[in-house]
Each structure stands twice: as structure tokens, then as C-alpha cells.
């Protein structure tokens, strides 16, 4: 909340009725509550929903955002609350900016996180520009993250509810984007509080289940999507140990991820084996004991730094980092190589650190997010 009583709840020195805000509406309960709350407060709300892939295929799909049903739900909320709503066809943009890279990086043996790229390249880039074109003062979303004003401008902070925090997926938000964005749900104590607001506003989506899957990956089956996008990608090959001994055969590298144990089809061994490396060029899945998964050194590039001083001003940054969305932050040292590249040294070795995942930086003494980058194999 703003400290200056002359500012409205979105931080502008004018009445809500004179403040236009574009709300990115996925059709779920979170963004619907944001739109309803702002409309009730008297803001000039404009709802926008993105059609990100084939509408016909989407109509029969459940468990993912931005499908045909979700577009209908978003439109219905806008009608209920009395503000305009637009559906924008971003299918080509989404495929070029997100889906193609997802397929290519997966084929290269990485474990991509397309939701981050979608926020970075579509929602907080193209959609944000659309909001500006609509003369909006800001754009609001239903993400669980907080924007707080610091001494040097707006800062990105974790959500009050650690169980809902989405900072891992929003680390690439730039200072310029952060200046324009608002996250009205970040301070709420729980998802139950969001649903209570939805019920209070009488929204038809108050009890709608949360989306679970990546929107273009039905039932979490990455491999089937890759095979459709890149025919011939699922070529069989050998499963070998770290010394090159052939232990079995696989039905395509795309069916495996770093750290995987189940489904290898090489049972009967004294100790369990895990996927420790994917050799895409030679179509080999390399397996080894669990301790081979552990690493303390993580090469990171495409860094987005949100600290106050320039990233390269210090030889080392003592921070906490997440190398996987489901893990809590752990103590680490970042050593910059350039403004966008660094080596991260973990205080305690992590298992299954995979190229294609994000490494997100946190201030160890507060809730602030200091940015992050993409894990890669290194030079």
C-alpha cells in the first residue's frame, strides 16, 4: 500500500476513476479477483485475455490456462463486474517466442521452463505494450508476488504466502516492467483469502480449480508435444553408465530428464541408477549413482539483475538461490563474469541441477528478489 495518502491504491496521484488499468485475465480465480477488486474500487478497468494456441483444440482441454473455457470465464467475469474485455490472438507470437524454443531446448537435453519465457516475452512484453497502447496507467496481474517501493524505486518481493509465491517464474521482470506492473494479490495470506474475495464479489469462478499443466502440454506429457512439434525427435538409442557400458535401450532422449529414476527399464541392479546426463548428439542416456547428480557450481547466463548497484560492481554477491521452483532458497555466492553471465557456487551441493532451469537470486536478509538467470552447461 502506498505511504502517501494522496496516492490511490495503485500508487497514482489521481482518483481511481481517472486511473486506467489493464488486467491480464487468464480466466482463473486469481486474475478475476484482481479485476473485480479494482473495478469495485472505481478504477477504469480493461480486461484482456490472450488466446495463445488453437482455440478449437483448447475448448476440449482442462487443467491449463488460456484455453477456450478460460476465455469464456474471463469474459463472463467482465460482464458481471461491468468493464470491457478483449481477447487478443497471440498464437503466432506465443509459438515463436515460447513453444519453438521449448521444443528446441528440450531436444538439446535441457529441461525448459516455458512459463518464465511466456511472462518474459509475451505477457510482460507484447501484452504490456498493448496496455500502453490502450493508454493504461499500469497493468495488473493475478501473480502471487509483491511490488514494494524502495529507496531506488520499485522492488520485487516474494508473496506473503510462501506456498503460493511465484517469484521463481518472474525473476526476469525488468526494472522498467516493474515500474508499470501491479500485483494486487501478493500481500494476501493464502489462496483461501483469494477465493473468499471471489465469493464476496459473486464471481462465477470462485470455486474454479487451479490450472496445473503448462498450457500447451496436456497432462504434463512433454514428449508427446515434442514429437508433434519436431517429427522424428523420439529416435531410440542406448542407456549407458558413466563409463560407457551399455545397460539397455531407450525409446528417445526426449522421454528422459536429469535426475529421473523411474521408467529406465534397467532393473535388477544392486543400487538404483539415475539419469545424470543426456547426450543428445549420440542419442545416449547416461545413468549413474545418486551422488553423481550433486553439484555446487552452476553456470548461469541471460542474467536479469534487480539489485540497486550494477551487477558487476562487486566481485561476489552473497545471496540465497533457487535452482528449482519446488526447492527453498539455499545459501550461495554469485561471481559475475559479465553483466549477464556468472558462476554460482552453492554452499551445499544440490542434486539434479539441470540446464534449461532458472537460478533465481534472493536477498538472504529480506523477501526481496534480486533477479536470476538461466542455467546452462557452461563453456
| Low-pLDDT regions | 55-62
Mean pLDDT level: 91
Backbone structural class: alpha/beta
Gyration radius (Cα, Å) is 22 Å
What global shape is seen? Answer: globular
- Give me the strand/helix succession: EHEHHEHHEEEHEHHEEEEEEEEEE
What fraction of residues sit in β-strands? Answer: 25-35%
How helical, in percent, are the residues?
10-25%
Main beta sheet, described?
6 strands, antiparallel, barrel
Q: What count of helical segments does DSSP give?
A: 8
Q: What is the end-to-end distance?
A: 45 Å
Which strand order do you get reading across the main beta sheet? Answer: 12-15-14-13-16-17
Q: Give a count of the beta strands, DSSP E runs of length 2 or more.
A: 17
Question: How does this structure look, described?
Answer:
The chain starts with 19 loop residues before the first strand and ends with a strand. The protein has helices at 29-40, 55-58, 68-81, 91-107, 114-133, 175-180, 191-200, 222-229, and strands spanning 20-24, 44-51, 85-89, 138-140, 145-150, 153-158, 181-182, 237-241, 246-250, 274-279, 284-288, 294-305, 317-322, 330-338, 341-351, 358-362, 369-375. A six-stranded antiparallel beta barrel has the order 12-15-14-13-16-17. It has a five-stranded parallel beta sheet with strand order 3-2-1-4-7, with helices on both faces. Mean pLDDT is 91; it is low at 55-62. Helix content is 24%, strand content 28%. Helix 1 (29-40) runs parallel beside helix 3 (68-81). With 379 residues, it is an alpha/beta fold. The protein contains eight helices and 17 strands.
